[in-house]
Design a protein that fits this description.
Elements: E1 3-9, E2 13-19, E3 25-32, H1 38-53, E4 58-65, E5 68-69, E6 75-78, E7 88-89, H2 90-98, E8 102-106, H3 107-118, E9 127-132, E10 136-142, E11 145-146, H4 178-181, H5 183-196, H6 202-205, H7 217-225, H8 229-253, E12 257-261, H9 269-282, E13 293-296, H10 303-313
Parallel strand pairs: 1-4, 4-8, 9-12, 12-13
Antiparallel strand pairs: 1-2, 2-3, 5-6, 6-7, 9-10, 10-11
Length: 314
Protein backbone atom coordinates (compact mmCIF):
# COMPACT_ATOMS: atom_id res chain seq x y z
CA UNK A 1 0.00 0.00 0.00
CA UNK A 2 1.52 3.33 -1.11
CA UNK A 3 1.96 6.25 1.25
CA UNK A 4 1.87 9.93 0.39
CA UNK A 5 2.31 13.03 2.53
CA UNK A 6 -0.30 15.74 2.78
CA UNK A 7 0.66 19.13 4.21
CA UNK A 8 -1.88 21.81 5.10
CA UNK A 9 -0.74 25.43 5.55
CA UNK A 10 -2.67 27.25 8.26
CA UNK A 11 -2.35 30.66 9.85
CA UNK A 12 -0.57 29.25 12.91
CA UNK A 13 0.74 25.83 11.93
CA UNK A 14 2.10 23.77 9.06
CA UNK A 15 0.51 20.36 9.63
CA UNK A 16 1.58 17.26 7.75
CA UNK A 17 0.54 13.64 7.75
CA UNK A 18 1.44 10.34 6.12
CA UNK A 19 -1.75 9.11 4.44
CA UNK A 20 -2.53 5.65 3.08
CA UNK A 21 -4.83 4.70 0.18
CA UNK A 22 -7.88 4.53 2.46
CA UNK A 23 -7.45 8.12 3.64
CA UNK A 24 -6.15 7.09 7.08
CA UNK A 25 -3.46 9.28 8.62
CA UNK A 26 -0.59 7.07 9.79
CA UNK A 27 1.61 9.69 11.42
CA UNK A 28 1.75 13.47 11.85
CA UNK A 29 4.29 16.28 12.11
CA UNK A 30 3.95 20.03 12.49
CA UNK A 31 5.84 23.30 12.60
CA UNK A 32 4.71 26.78 13.52
CA UNK A 33 3.85 28.92 10.50
CA UNK A 34 6.65 31.50 10.15
CA UNK A 35 5.21 35.02 10.26
CA UNK A 36 7.69 36.19 7.63
CA UNK A 37 6.35 33.72 5.03
CA UNK A 38 8.48 33.38 1.92
CA UNK A 39 11.60 31.23 2.15
CA UNK A 40 11.06 30.52 5.85
CA UNK A 41 7.63 29.02 5.16
CA UNK A 42 8.92 26.98 2.23
CA UNK A 43 11.63 25.54 4.49
CA UNK A 44 9.10 24.76 7.26
CA UNK A 45 7.05 22.75 4.75
CA UNK A 46 10.16 20.89 3.61
CA UNK A 47 11.09 20.18 7.22
CA UNK A 48 7.68 18.65 7.91
CA UNK A 49 7.94 16.47 4.80
CA UNK A 50 11.49 15.34 5.63
CA UNK A 51 10.47 14.41 9.18
CA UNK A 52 7.59 12.29 7.89
CA UNK A 53 9.82 10.66 5.27
CA UNK A 54 12.18 9.27 7.94
CA UNK A 55 9.90 6.44 9.06
CA UNK A 56 7.78 5.77 5.95
CA UNK A 57 8.46 5.12 2.28
CA UNK A 58 6.75 8.08 0.62
CA UNK A 59 5.79 8.28 -3.07
CA UNK A 60 4.94 11.98 -3.34
CA UNK A 61 3.92 15.06 -1.38
CA UNK A 62 0.84 17.28 -1.67
CA UNK A 63 0.60 20.79 -0.24
CA UNK A 64 -2.72 22.53 0.48
CA UNK A 65 -2.55 26.35 0.32
CA UNK A 66 -5.11 29.14 0.58
CA UNK A 67 -4.76 31.09 -2.65
CA UNK A 68 -4.67 30.91 -6.43
CA UNK A 69 -2.57 28.04 -7.81
CA UNK A 70 -1.42 27.78 -11.42
CA UNK A 71 -3.18 25.30 -13.70
CA UNK A 72 -0.13 23.01 -13.70
CA UNK A 73 -0.30 22.91 -9.85
CA UNK A 74 3.26 24.18 -9.46
CA UNK A 75 3.20 27.92 -8.78
CA UNK A 76 1.58 30.10 -6.12
CA UNK A 77 -0.07 32.84 -8.17
CA UNK A 78 -1.47 34.79 -5.20
CA UNK A 79 -2.05 34.20 -1.50
CA UNK A 80 -4.16 36.58 0.61
CA UNK A 81 -2.42 36.13 3.95
CA UNK A 82 1.14 34.94 3.29
CA UNK A 83 4.03 37.34 2.71
CA UNK A 84 6.53 37.02 -0.14
CA UNK A 85 4.96 33.95 -1.73
CA UNK A 86 3.22 35.34 -4.80
CA UNK A 87 4.76 33.93 -7.98
CA UNK A 88 6.81 31.30 -6.14
CA UNK A 89 7.30 28.00 -7.99
CA UNK A 90 6.69 25.94 -4.87
CA UNK A 91 6.96 22.67 -6.78
CA UNK A 92 10.57 23.43 -7.72
CA UNK A 93 11.48 24.87 -4.32
CA UNK A 94 10.18 21.82 -2.45
CA UNK A 95 11.33 19.15 -4.91
CA UNK A 96 14.87 20.49 -4.73
CA UNK A 97 14.75 20.21 -0.93
CA UNK A 98 13.05 16.84 -0.47
CA UNK A 99 13.71 14.96 -3.71
CA UNK A 100 10.13 13.80 -4.26
CA UNK A 101 7.35 14.78 -6.70
CA UNK A 102 5.17 17.58 -5.32
CA UNK A 103 1.60 18.70 -6.07
CA UNK A 104 0.27 22.09 -4.94
CA UNK A 105 -3.49 22.57 -4.53
CA UNK A 106 -5.89 25.21 -3.28
CA UNK A 107 -7.04 24.45 0.27
CA UNK A 108 -10.77 24.35 -0.48
CA UNK A 109 -10.18 22.12 -3.51
CA UNK A 110 -8.11 19.82 -1.30
CA UNK A 111 -10.86 19.65 1.32
CA UNK A 112 -13.50 18.98 -1.33
CA UNK A 113 -11.46 16.11 -2.74
CA UNK A 114 -10.94 14.66 0.74
CA UNK A 115 -14.68 14.71 1.43
CA UNK A 116 -15.42 13.30 -2.04
CA UNK A 117 -13.06 10.35 -1.65
CA UNK A 118 -13.30 9.59 2.06
CA UNK A 119 -16.00 11.70 3.72
CA UNK A 120 -19.49 13.05 3.19
CA UNK A 121 -19.26 12.87 -0.61
CA UNK A 122 -18.09 9.26 -0.77
CA UNK A 123 -19.96 7.21 -3.38
CA UNK A 124 -21.15 10.25 -5.32
CA UNK A 125 -19.86 11.52 -8.65
CA UNK A 126 -20.86 15.18 -8.45
CA UNK A 127 -20.50 17.29 -5.33
CA UNK A 128 -20.14 20.92 -4.37
CA UNK A 129 -18.30 21.80 -1.15
CA UNK A 130 -18.50 25.06 0.75
CA UNK A 131 -15.95 25.77 3.47
CA UNK A 132 -17.62 28.35 5.69
CA UNK A 133 -15.23 30.19 7.97
CA UNK A 134 -13.75 33.68 7.90
CA UNK A 135 -14.78 33.69 4.25
CA UNK A 136 -16.35 31.09 1.97
CA UNK A 137 -14.18 28.71 0.00
CA UNK A 138 -15.37 26.17 -2.50
CA UNK A 139 -14.51 23.01 -4.32
CA UNK A 140 -16.36 21.27 -7.15
CA UNK A 141 -16.15 17.65 -8.25
CA UNK A 142 -17.77 16.91 -11.63
CA UNK A 143 -18.05 13.33 -12.90
CA UNK A 144 -15.48 12.28 -10.27
CA UNK A 145 -12.95 14.90 -11.40
CA UNK A 146 -11.88 18.00 -9.52
CA UNK A 147 -12.89 21.12 -11.46
CA UNK A 148 -9.91 23.46 -11.68
CA UNK A 149 -10.79 25.56 -14.74
CA UNK A 150 -8.63 26.80 -17.60
CA UNK A 151 -6.32 28.86 -15.40
CA UNK A 152 -6.49 26.91 -12.13
CA UNK A 153 -8.75 29.30 -10.20
CA UNK A 154 -12.19 27.68 -10.54
CA UNK A 155 -14.59 27.35 -7.58
CA UNK A 156 -13.89 30.69 -5.88
CA UNK A 157 -17.49 30.43 -4.73
CA UNK A 158 -17.15 33.03 -2.00
CA UNK A 159 -17.03 35.69 -4.68
CA UNK A 160 -20.28 34.80 -6.37
CA UNK A 161 -22.27 38.05 -6.37
CA UNK A 162 -25.54 37.51 -4.53
CA UNK A 163 -26.51 41.05 -3.45
CA UNK A 164 -26.39 43.73 -6.19
CA UNK A 165 -24.54 46.84 -4.93
CA UNK A 166 -24.00 45.06 -1.62
CA UNK A 167 -21.15 45.23 0.88
CA UNK A 168 -17.63 45.82 -0.40
CA UNK A 169 -15.59 42.60 -0.39
CA UNK A 170 -11.85 42.24 0.05
CA UNK A 171 -11.66 41.10 -3.58
CA UNK A 172 -12.81 44.57 -4.70
CA UNK A 173 -16.33 43.62 -5.77
CA UNK A 174 -19.60 44.39 -4.01
CA UNK A 175 -22.19 41.89 -2.72
CA UNK A 176 -20.05 38.74 -2.65
CA UNK A 177 -21.40 35.53 -1.15
CA UNK A 178 -18.86 35.50 1.69
CA UNK A 179 -19.96 38.95 2.85
CA UNK A 180 -23.36 37.45 3.73
CA UNK A 181 -22.91 33.72 4.36
CA UNK A 182 -19.54 33.32 6.11
CA UNK A 183 -18.61 33.02 9.77
CA UNK A 184 -17.61 36.69 9.64
CA UNK A 185 -21.05 37.52 8.30
CA UNK A 186 -22.66 35.49 11.10
CA UNK A 187 -20.93 37.74 13.65
CA UNK A 188 -22.09 40.85 11.81
CA UNK A 189 -25.64 39.53 11.74
CA UNK A 190 -25.32 38.88 15.48
CA UNK A 191 -24.18 42.43 16.23
CA UNK A 192 -27.03 43.83 14.15
CA UNK A 193 -29.57 41.61 15.92
CA UNK A 194 -28.25 42.52 19.38
CA UNK A 195 -28.35 46.23 18.58
CA UNK A 196 -31.90 45.90 17.28
CA UNK A 197 -33.11 43.76 20.22
CA UNK A 198 -30.88 44.46 23.27
CA UNK A 199 -33.62 43.27 25.61
CA UNK A 200 -33.41 39.77 24.07
CA UNK A 201 -29.62 39.47 23.89
CA UNK A 202 -28.63 38.46 27.43
CA UNK A 203 -28.22 34.73 26.71
CA UNK A 204 -25.69 35.55 23.98
CA UNK A 205 -23.90 38.40 25.76
CA UNK A 206 -23.55 36.48 29.01
CA UNK A 207 -21.47 33.86 27.21
CA UNK A 208 -18.86 36.50 26.39
CA UNK A 209 -17.60 39.55 28.23
CA UNK A 210 -21.01 41.22 28.14
CA UNK A 211 -20.20 43.46 25.18
CA UNK A 212 -21.28 43.21 21.56
CA UNK A 213 -17.60 43.20 20.54
CA UNK A 214 -16.98 40.19 22.78
CA UNK A 215 -19.57 37.98 21.06
CA UNK A 216 -18.09 35.06 19.12
CA UNK A 217 -19.40 32.12 17.13
CA UNK A 218 -19.21 29.74 20.08
CA UNK A 219 -21.43 32.00 22.19
CA UNK A 220 -24.03 32.25 19.44
CA UNK A 221 -23.98 28.49 18.84
CA UNK A 222 -24.31 27.64 22.54
CA UNK A 223 -27.19 30.05 22.97
CA UNK A 224 -28.92 28.60 19.92
CA UNK A 225 -28.48 25.06 21.28
CA UNK A 226 -30.22 26.23 24.44
CA UNK A 227 -33.15 27.38 22.32
CA UNK A 228 -32.49 31.14 22.49
CA UNK A 229 -34.73 32.73 19.87
CA UNK A 230 -32.38 35.59 18.99
CA UNK A 231 -29.44 33.24 18.46
CA UNK A 232 -31.58 30.95 16.32
CA UNK A 233 -32.71 33.93 14.24
CA UNK A 234 -29.06 34.85 13.57
CA UNK A 235 -28.42 31.39 12.14
CA UNK A 236 -31.62 31.67 10.12
CA UNK A 237 -30.43 34.90 8.48
CA UNK A 238 -27.00 33.47 7.67
CA UNK A 239 -28.45 30.13 6.53
CA UNK A 240 -30.93 31.94 4.29
CA UNK A 241 -28.08 33.68 2.45
CA UNK A 242 -26.11 30.44 2.12
CA UNK A 243 -29.20 28.66 0.82
CA UNK A 244 -29.75 31.41 -1.75
CA UNK A 245 -26.20 31.05 -3.05
CA UNK A 246 -26.48 27.27 -3.20
CA UNK A 247 -29.77 27.51 -5.13
CA UNK A 248 -28.06 29.48 -7.91
CA UNK A 249 -25.07 27.15 -7.96
CA UNK A 250 -27.26 24.04 -7.94
CA UNK A 251 -28.96 24.85 -11.23
CA UNK A 252 -25.56 25.45 -12.82
CA UNK A 253 -23.69 22.45 -11.43
CA UNK A 254 -26.52 20.03 -10.57
CA UNK A 255 -24.60 18.28 -7.75
CA UNK A 256 -25.85 15.22 -5.91
CA UNK A 257 -24.78 16.76 -2.61
CA UNK A 258 -23.57 20.04 -1.19
CA UNK A 259 -21.07 19.42 1.61
CA UNK A 260 -20.80 22.18 4.21
CA UNK A 261 -17.51 22.37 6.10
CA UNK A 262 -15.48 24.94 8.00
CA UNK A 263 -15.75 26.20 11.55
CA UNK A 264 -19.40 27.25 11.34
CA UNK A 265 -20.53 23.66 10.74
CA UNK A 266 -19.99 22.98 14.45
CA UNK A 267 -23.56 24.31 14.80
CA UNK A 268 -24.87 21.26 12.89
CA UNK A 269 -28.55 21.31 11.98
CA UNK A 270 -28.95 24.71 13.64
CA UNK A 271 -27.24 26.02 10.51
CA UNK A 272 -27.98 23.22 8.03
CA UNK A 273 -31.77 23.39 8.39
CA UNK A 274 -31.97 27.13 7.52
CA UNK A 275 -29.65 26.45 4.58
CA UNK A 276 -31.98 23.71 3.33
CA UNK A 277 -35.00 25.98 3.76
CA UNK A 278 -33.25 28.85 1.98
CA UNK A 279 -32.17 26.65 -0.92
CA UNK A 280 -35.72 25.43 -1.45
CA UNK A 281 -37.13 28.98 -1.19
CA UNK A 282 -34.78 30.45 -3.79
CA UNK A 283 -34.37 27.47 -6.11
CA UNK A 284 -35.14 28.35 -9.74
CA UNK A 285 -37.89 26.15 -11.16
CA UNK A 286 -38.70 25.00 -7.64
CA UNK A 287 -40.53 21.69 -7.54
CA UNK A 288 -39.60 20.87 -11.13
CA UNK A 289 -36.34 19.00 -10.49
CA UNK A 290 -34.53 17.12 -7.70
CA UNK A 291 -32.58 19.12 -5.14
CA UNK A 292 -29.10 18.22 -3.90
CA UNK A 293 -28.67 16.93 -0.38
CA UNK A 294 -27.20 19.43 2.10
CA UNK A 295 -24.83 17.49 4.36
CA UNK A 296 -22.17 18.23 6.96
CA UNK A 297 -18.53 17.55 6.19
CA UNK A 298 -17.10 14.53 8.01
CA UNK A 299 -13.33 14.96 7.98
CA UNK A 300 -13.13 18.22 9.92
CA UNK A 301 -9.83 20.10 9.89
CA UNK A 302 -8.02 17.14 8.32
CA UNK A 303 -10.01 17.17 5.06
CA UNK A 304 -7.46 19.31 3.23
CA UNK A 305 -4.49 17.27 4.43
CA UNK A 306 -6.12 13.97 3.44
CA UNK A 307 -7.42 15.35 0.16
CA UNK A 308 -4.15 16.82 -1.05
CA UNK A 309 -2.28 13.64 -0.08
CA UNK A 310 -4.65 11.68 -2.31
CA UNK A 311 -4.27 14.18 -5.15
CA UNK A 312 -0.51 13.77 -4.87
CA UNK A 313 -0.98 10.01 -5.24
CA UNK A 314 -3.17 10.22 -8.34
Amino acid sequence: MGYTVGIDIGGTKVLGGVVDETGAIISRARRDTPAEGGVALTQAIADVALELMKDSEIESVGVSVAGFISADRKTILATPNIKDWNGVNLDYELTSRIGLPVVIENDANSAAWGEFKFGAGRGKENILMLTVGTGIGGGIVVNSNLLRGSFGIAAEIGHLRIVPNGLLCGCGAHGCFEQYGSGTALLRHAREAIQAHPDRASKILNRGDGSIEGVNGTAITEAARDGDELALSIFEVTGDYIGAGIASLAVILDPEAVVIGGGVIDAGDILLNPIRTGMEKYMPFAGKHPHPQIVAAQLGNEAGLVGVADLARS
